[in-house]
Automatic annotation (TrEMBL), chain A:
Its main location: membrane. The keyword Signal does not apply. The gene is occM_1. GO terms for cellular component: ATP-binding cassette (ABC) transporter complex. It is a multi-pass membrane protein. Residues 15-216 form the ABC transmembrane type-1 domain. InterPro entries: AA_ABC_transptr_permease_3TM (IPR010065), ArtM/GltK/GlnP/TcyL/YhdX-like (IPR043429), MetI-like (IPR000515), MetI-like_sf (IPR035906). Belongs to the binding-protein-dependent transport system permease family. HisMQ subfamily. It is found in: Cell inner membrane; Cell membrane. This is Octopine transport system permease protein OccM. The chain crosses the membrane at residues 20-42, 63-84, 96-116, 150-178, 198-217. NCBIfam families: HEQRo_perm_3TM (TIGR01726).
From TrEMBL, chain B:
Residues 1-19 form the signal peptide. Residues 22-248 form the Solute-binding protein family 3/N-terminal domain. This is Lysine-arginine-ornithine-binding periplasmic protein. Keywords: Signal. It comes from the Bacteria. The gene is argT.
UniProtKB/TrEMBL annotation, chain C:
The keyword Cell membrane applies. It comes from Marinomonas spartinae. GO terms for biological process: amino acid transport. This is Histidine transport system permease protein HisQ. The chain crosses the membrane at residues 25-47, 59-80, 100-118, 147-169, 200-222. Keywords: Amino-acid transport, Cell inner membrane, Cell membrane, Membrane, Transmembrane, Transmembrane helix, Transport. Its main location: membrane. One of its GO terms (molecular function) is transmembrane transporter activity.
Amino acid sequence: MNWVFEYSDLLIKGFLTTLELISFSLVIGFVCAIGVALCRVSETRWLAWPANAFTSVIRGTPLLVQIYIVYFGLGSIFAHMPIIRSSFIWPYLRDGFWYMVFALVLSFAAYVGEVVRGGLVGVPKGELEAAKAIGMSPYKVMLRIRLPRALYQVLPTLAGESVMLLKSTALASTIAVVDLLGAANEVRSMTFEVYQPLILVAIIYIVLTLIIEQFFGRLERRIPVRR
Amino acid sequence: MKKFLVAMALSFAAVASHAADSLRIAVLAEPYPPFSQKMPDGKWEGFEIDLIHKICTDMKVKCQIVDTAWDGIIPALLSNKVDAIFASMSITKERAKKVLFTHPYYNTLPAVVGLPGQDYSMTKKALKGKYIGVQNGTTSAFYIKKKVGSVAHIRQYATQDEINSDLLAGRLDYMLADNIAAKAFADKNKGAVQFYGTVKYDPVLGGGVAAALRPNDKALAARFNKEIDQLVKSKFYADLSDKYFGTNIAPTNN
Amino acid sequence: MSEWITLLGFSDQGWGISLLKGMLVTLQISIGAFIVGLVIGVLTALAKLHGSQSMKVIARGYTTVCRAVPELLLILLLYYSGSHGINILLQALGFPEVDIGGVPVAIVVLGLVQGAYASEIIRSSILAVPHGQIEAATCMGMTRQRVFWRMTLPMMAPFALSGLANLWVSLVKDSALISVVGTNELLYNAKQAAGSTHSYLTFFLAAAALYYVINLVSNAALRRVELRFRRWMP
């Protein structure tokens, strides 16, 4: 187990990258998920239809393929555009990190969007009618009544979806991002220890999962619900 | 429960215990031209593939080619999924602790390929802040980390193929890879990339490319060694090497 | 456009056949893993509900690990240790070593990972069966085994079905991860084609389309099955 100390810098760097990946994609992905859900329940056809198609395609294809399409496909298109290559964003687009965040955001938006949509549809009609009756505009009804109710309801599922997201971040190692699994693979290739580095990071993922579940458990208890 | 497990394992077993006279040879799963590459029709082609066929014919053994990802190629050998590795693997001290190497069957130095028109030299000054791609766990990776690891961005990939695509996409400034594969890649993509030449020898580069076996397969190693020693001096080898590379890449020091 | 047709076509230079062959292997792996996952899922669910204390702990530990550790990591771990483990087991029982191919190992590995999810689905649907029905069956003198086959299983099926349908879809998607360790399935063949031709976008989009087709077709089929199973339900 000497390699743990020898390569501790690398492993810590990988750990931090995993944390960055999950925080960025969780926050941006959640905002996008609400957007997708609102489009899907919208009565405007040209909003609902693309949102439904987006959800169906993202949920119907493997994340790894999506990552390859984004990184190798879109990435090489960017590289052949001189405007982008000479611009200030190129250093960011060189790295796999932001492509990974992008792919994770798409995925989280589709999966959680589906859950939020379920929540929005499930809000009792009576409440919406009551809100309308006291003179709230449709916009206000959505913002003050329907959306908050839906979000409370999806909170328990959100913990599960966040754990899924954490697990998905491990795919970053397939596009040369040194996340936790990427670091373990690098250690493996240098020390030829076959299993030990993998087992170590597996334990770290389990601990992170427990922390995420604890966090959402607390959040859930803090929100007053009358049943 | 025991019965159930055994039944399950047996029903999943493709072929029961392989005969001694057939060998499973691991080659790289990803395309690594001109050493090994799978064609659209599923056939394998390349210098290493031709060598494997020649060695197997001479040794009178049946060989089955098993494509294995580089990342898992040593575990595949050790967990008895394959019997020998022919995957452009250089002999290094670290690896020799896990596997048994035969005598080398070719020897080349790594070379540098990069985006065209750069002011290249293998120095910390010239490579400072540059993005350099290498394959995980290769002698090129060990070399570049030793030379400029402290100042350059070393990006490590699971396969050489991904490095090629990222260099073409301009995400990398340079890559370091085996001379032959690097030259072939640079020639195929003239204009998009430039060949900057091989690096100087360093002990970290190891002692040539050899087949790897399980440590206890000493008898098999002896058979391979005898065959390889003859082969690398033969006209067949010289012709084959000339056909693929235009030069003889036989190891000189054995 | 004509370049696309050449690349994806079925001629000597085209990778169309290779992709379709890969799709077939993907289906093989997914179907096999689904069956293995179902068997493991039922056994684990029974262990959780009726097992001894130690069996419950093992079952719960297995579920927790499989649900918290990334599939890719589990696959890397199990792919190489799995066949090694089976061979050690065989040797211990006095059998000769066997050569285990990539597809069977992929099936077992994915089955093990998905078994954890299957066990949760099955456990909750067993719990959803009204208890009175089971008691009535016991009163009529049915043995425990008979109760399981004749009562619990048919009654829980409609509850379990939608969960298992989701599991199938995610299995097909997870089978793509096997490409990282190198078995000739759909994504793996697409990667080889993309690497050889440098047409990354073309081949990955083609692979995505094929996965999508598998899922659309199986969704439609599963919906029909579900309707049939639910026909007696209120």
